[in-house]
């Protein structure tokens, strides 16, 4: 069987930046094992398999695989798939903004596609579930896991803490951009410390950034998913936005944050996060960005 694929760089406006993504725009006929094998073959952070929706009110169903596992929700595959399908005409654009809904395992994910110059230029997802937080291991143990000292961590704001908006992870704030750059995941300590944790993904946050426009600079380690380090992670940005909504943003209105990621990897990425609050409650967390189409082709998949 032969299947078409398209690759794109997501959360960037230029090729060779952002996070690479492979999209199979019509994955009908593929089983879960075949999807996992294809994702392992591409060996990107995620590969997306697009299917007809189960609910006809929705636009498409997405199944998202890392090289090691299927995930229930992820940001760069959601944003990237929306822009790939719009750019190739698989999704009809209806003006300056087009609203669609993807089915993902975590739940329906609304996406808004914006058009500039007649082309889809930006997509913004709304996280499928409300933010949730849980207690983290001791900061000293986390610092050791990151090959840092306790002084390299910033704990005054309430981090480290686990958080999720459909994609759980451990959020750790470091003191500055230098500590962020020095961090190295000690895999033996990581294995022991997070073996039975709610999440084994680790998201480092610095309020200091080498990108002067950014509010935060971050790094993301996900070895359990087959990703040593990820250059742009929308699901993690949503979780962090949810954490900010619960812990730091005003009681009313919409707070906006620009997150820089991938700079240490030579793949600069920008993720735009919005946190909407009403009457002191987080009403919505949104993550958006751009994407650039890179390549297309076909892949031969053995039957069965």
Explained architecture:
- By secondary structure, the protein is of the alpha+beta class.
- The chain has 2 domains: 2-126 and 290-300, Diaminopimelate Epimerase, Chain A, domain 1 (Roll), CATH 3.10.310; 132-289, Roll (Diaminopimelate Epimerase, Chain A, domain 1), CATH 3.10.310.10.
- It is built from 6 helices and 18 strands.
- It has an 18-stranded mixed β-sheet that branches.
- Helix 3 (139-145) packs antiparallel against helix 5 (187-193).
- It is globular and about 55 Å long.
Proper CATH architecture of the largest domain: Roll
**CATH homologous superfamily of the largest domain, by name?**
Diaminopimelate Epimerase, Chain A, domain 1
Task: Name the overall outline.
Answer: globular
Count of distinct strands: 18
Domains (count): 2
Order of helices and strands: EEHEEEHEEEEHEEHHEEEHEEEE
Overall pLDDT confidence: 96
Number of helices: 6
Sheet with the most strands?
Answer: 18 strands, mixed
How large, in whole angstroms, is the Cα Rg?
A: 19 Å
**CATH topology type of the largest domain:** Diaminopimelate Epimerase, Chain A, domain 1
Distance between the termini: 10 Å
CATH class of the largest domain: Alpha Beta
State the secondary-structure class. alpha+beta
Strand content: 35-45%
């Amino acid at each position: 069987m032969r299947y078409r694929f398209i690759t794109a760089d997501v959360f960037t406006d230029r090729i060779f930046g952002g996070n690479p993504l492979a999209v199979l725009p019509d994955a009908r006929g593929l089983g879960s094992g075949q999807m996992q094998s294809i994702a392992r073959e591409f060996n990107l952070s995620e590969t997306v398999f697009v299917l007809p929706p189960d609910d006809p009110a929705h636009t498409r169903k997405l199944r998202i695989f890392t090289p090691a596992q299927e995930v229930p929700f992820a940001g760069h595959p959601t944003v990237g798939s929306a822009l790939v399908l719009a750019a190739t005409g698989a999704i009809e654009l209806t003006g300056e903004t087009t609203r669609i809904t993807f089915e993902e395992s975590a739940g329906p994910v609304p996406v808004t596609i914006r058009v500039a110059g007649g082309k889809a230029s930006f997509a913004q997802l709304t996280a499928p579930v409300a933010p949730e937080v849980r207690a983290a291991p001791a900061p000293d143990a986390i610092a050791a896991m990151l090959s840092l000292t306790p002084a390299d961590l910033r704990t005054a704001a309430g981090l480290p803490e686990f958080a999720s908006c459909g994609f759980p992870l451990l959020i750790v704030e470091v003191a500055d951009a230098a500590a962020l750059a020095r961090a190295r995941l000690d895999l033996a300590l990581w294995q022991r410390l997070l073996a039975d944790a709610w999440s084994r993904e680790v998201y480092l946050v610095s309020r200091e950034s080498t990108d002067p426009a950014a509010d935060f600079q971050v790094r993301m380690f996900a070895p359990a998913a087959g990703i040593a380090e990820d250059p742009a992670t929308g699901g993690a940005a949503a979780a962090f936005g949810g954490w900010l909504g619960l812990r730091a943003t005003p009681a009313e209105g919409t707070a906006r944050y620009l997150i820089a990621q991938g700079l240490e990897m030579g793949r600069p990425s920008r993720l735009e996060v919005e946190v909407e609050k009403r009457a002191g409650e987080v009403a919505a967390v949104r993550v958006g960005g751009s994407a650039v189409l890179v390549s297309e082709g076909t892949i031969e998949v053995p039957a069965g």
